[in-house]
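[Automated response] Your request has been received and processed.

Submitted sequence:
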Amino acid sequence: MRDALVAAAFRLFLERGYEQTTVDDIVALAGVGRRSFFRYFPSKEDVVFPDHERCLADMTAFLAASDAEAEPVRRVCDAARLVLRMYAENPSFSVQRYRLTKRVPGLRAYELSVVWRYERALAEYLRGRFAGRPDGNLRADVIAAAVVAAHNNALRSWLRSDGQGDASATVDHALAYVQSAFGAPPAAPSAPAPALATSPTPTTAPSTTGERPGERPEDVVVVVCRRGVPLWRVVQEVETALGRE
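Generated structure:
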């Protein structure tokens, strides 16, 4: 019955327009009573977003099931992918809803309230993971907002293409920006850091490494950085040390 109500509502929205369609119209087309409609949907707006409550519950459960070893930024990125999966389950419906929401200001406002609830769920999880840090709450809120912004940017791009292409690849690309900016890099096996050779410089010091007199030993540059610094920043520091800016 729930699916029948959603189908009837969207048929009428497309034929008559959202504002011109009433709950009575929807239940008449679906062949049920008003009481049945309100058993499933508190308002006409809710029938446009029938799956968000389930998705929000799934996301909250997913985050609650996280173990202490999970990298928190990667975890919230994975949680955002649950929302993508909901949209990708029915591309044609998702595209119809996107077009309808663009035309109706009240639905855009409703959608913003839904997005805010997703963001709060992500931020609440991150606040728990960053508890004890001086900037823990700030970091949690900024990362949660970045995840939602990156996800929505990619999702809307896919919806504007009428649901064509690989939505997962588009969202993964967007979330990679968040991961590189805020997340910890994958743990690397412990090994001596490789030396970086540069052009040789003159020296007259005696050789203790096997060079013949007159040979030039290589310069060695060592860069020290905090864990989690993006790779591009490390490269920039190396180039600066070598005078190659």
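Summary generated for your ticket: The chain has eleven helices and two strands. Strands lie at 196-197, 220-221.
If you did not submit this request, please reply to this message.
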